[in-house]
Amino acid sequence: MTYSCFDVQIENQIAHIILNRPEKRNSMIPAFWTELPEIVRDIDENAKARVIVISSTGPHFSSGLDVTSFVKPDIADPKEKKAAEIRAGAEFYSAVKNMQQTFTALQNCRLPVLAAIQGGCIGGGVDFITACDMRYATEDAFITIFETNIGMTADVGTFPRITKLIADGLARELAYTGRRMPADEAKSAGLFNAVYESQEALLAAVMSMAAEIASKAPLAIMGCKRMMNYSRDHSIEDSLDYIAIWNASMLQRDEIFEAMKANAEKRAGDFVDLPPIRKNIG
């Protein structure tokens, strides 16, 4: 399938989603918000891969929301203009909720999602990468919660997530000032897993990491993601109970034995892929 904002490649159990509008700094036009969750859900629900890598093209990962594509024309008729003003709040709320769900699709996906970031990761780009499981970057990369600089409060996912990834005070500093956080600082803060000299080196390293993850038992990796997301949002006591219940129902001894045997024989494990997700009928 052809998309407006992305190219998709699937090979060796790795799905590679590539932002493909470098001439527009990979800004997020309306199609972006529908295409991304559609792609992610298709990969996940149809068990097309074991890992997802997201990368970009051009000098910048993403310049964030393309606000020009959301500007509505002036309404001349006073009655229609008044009606539009009354509806504006509800329409804005609905639009933001839909955009939030675009990035939540990455969080809810059963597969690990790795982001490879070059250049600027601005505004909505920060919402994007904080919804991923792991983040890697080039030396020239930077993030900025840019919404503050244009009189807005970031609303598509940055704040609920970034405060779980870096120190609260640092997250507040970035939010209140809108300043750039360069790659080396982001790595020191724990936001970036690693930093590389070039985009070529970055992609090679991220694909190598993705291949390593893809070599593990898919059900075990799914369980790790599920448990870590749950533990992030719940107490230790609740999380311990949940992992016990999870393994009581999901643990597969055959996969454990195969992993142990493969390790002993120094070969790749022969693991069962995740099943496709059965959609509700009726």
UniProtKB/TrEMBL annotation:
Pfam families: ECH_1. This is Crotonase/enoyl-CoA hydratase family protein. One of its GO terms (molecular function) is isomerase activity. It comes from Sneathiella litorea. Pathway: Lipid metabolism; fatty acid beta-oxidation. PANTHER family: ENOYL-COA HYDRATASE. Gene3D superfamilies: 2-enoyl-CoA Hydratase, Chain A, domain 1, Lyase 2-enoyl-coa Hydratase, Chain A, domain 2. The keyword Isomerase applies. One of its GO terms (biological process) is fatty acid beta-oxidation. It comes from the Bacteria. Keywords: Fatty acid metabolism, Isomerase, Lipid metabolism. The keyword Lipid metabolism applies. Belongs to the enoyl-CoA hydratase/isomerase family.
